[in-house]
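sorry for the late reply, my laptop died twice this morning and i had to redo everyting from scratch. anyway the thing you sent over, i finally got around to it. pasting the sequence first so we're on the same page, its 179 residues, then the predicted structure underneath. double check i copied it right bc i was rushing
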Amino acid sequence: RWCNFKITRTNSHGDLWFNDFKLVNVQPAFRVSPSAAQAVAKDTEEVLVFATETTDRGSGFTTSGSLSYYTVPEDGLYEFNSTISCVPPSSAPSSQILRLYKNLSSTTTGSISGGTLLAVSVINQRANISSVLYYQTSLMTGPIELEKGDVLFLTLEPEENIDTKNATAFSYWAGSRID
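ok and here's the structure:
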């Protein structure tokens, strides 16, 4: 990898000295969370919306209306993780399916189609947080080879009507290039 840089100064008199100069290759990475709770209907797969960006190195994350996705800014190996917390209905949900897709052809709620399924999780953990009961589903991938321009979506499909928790610590999606 190469970089070009030019150092100029408005006052051309005298010498220009540096004590330390360092070039750092910053890997693309993001961490996002929802800014509002999202209602997801029973047995309906829906793309999750994340409107709060904590980190977005490489400017790959986009939220447009009711759609959030990550566009891979450069070829490489990536890893992703997510935890989605929800307020359960009156009875505990039997499962929530969290899926990570690449290049979907349809992102319409209830008719997600096309693309490649990269990872799936059906783990449903019970958590008492500040005396409130939540259910959490987490997803962690190993290394995934991606190409510049691949578009990733995170979806949720619950077996009961649920509302996602919109606090940064409870629900998030994160990823980074690792090579």
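The first strand starts at residue 29 and ends at 33.
thats about all i looked at so far, will dig more tmrw
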